[in-house]
Specification:
Length: about 180
């Protein structure tokens, strides 16, 4: 019964519009607001396939350029890179071998110097070397008397100067005799 009712309501609505039956208009899907908008534009990207294709092309051209031998028969850039990478290990091996040899030589020299007999005699260039040190916390009169040491080095200096003077006099006499 409800289907009959719906059909009757539809016919009644059509009769109220008072359209003649032969003048049915075609149905329009456009908006009936009176103004027409431009159709919506869809901006589509080029997509990953385009970029993969262009990247492959550019990469192929790049690899081709660097694989070509240089002018005057020079090796190609790729060949130089491969050669450099293959020699990388041998360079480190050589450096490590040289470093190990230097360390062994240094250890040998260290043992040689530590095991050598040391001289007990030290030449002092000035007598104050005996009194070097901090003057703080030293009670008065506790510095050593170094007058004998000073006298010894003064005598040694005078003897040295006399020897040098004799040597210069002998050289001067020899030069005067040869003239």
């Amino acid at each position: 019964m409800s289907a009959l009712r719906q059909r009757a309501a539809q016919l009644a609505r059509q009769a109220r519009t008072a359209r003649p039956s032969g003048a049915q208009s075609t149905r329009s899907y456009a908006s009936s607001h009176g103004h027409h908008e431009a159709p919506h534009t869809v901006e589509e990207s080029l997509g990953p396939a385009f970029f993969i294709t262009m990247g492959t092309f550019v990469g192929s051209v790049f690899v081709y350029q660097i694989s070509r031998p240089g002018e005057n028969g020079e090796l190609s850039t790729i060949h130089k890179w491969i050669e450099k990478i293959s020699n990388y290990g041998t360079e480190w091996e050589t450096k490590n071998h040289l470093m190990a040899a230097a360390i062994q030589q240094a250890a040998h020299d260290k043992h040689l110097l530590y095991g050598a007999e040391r001289s007990k005699y030290h030449e002092l260039s000035y007598p104050e070397v005996f009194t070097h040190g901090s003057p703080f916390n030293v009670p008065a009169g506790h510095y050593p008397n170094i007058s004998k040491v000073v006298a010894h080095y003064q005598k040694q200096h005078h003897d040295d100067e006399a020897r040098k003077a004799k040597k210069l006099a002998a050289a001067a006499a020899t030069a005067a005799a040869s003239e």
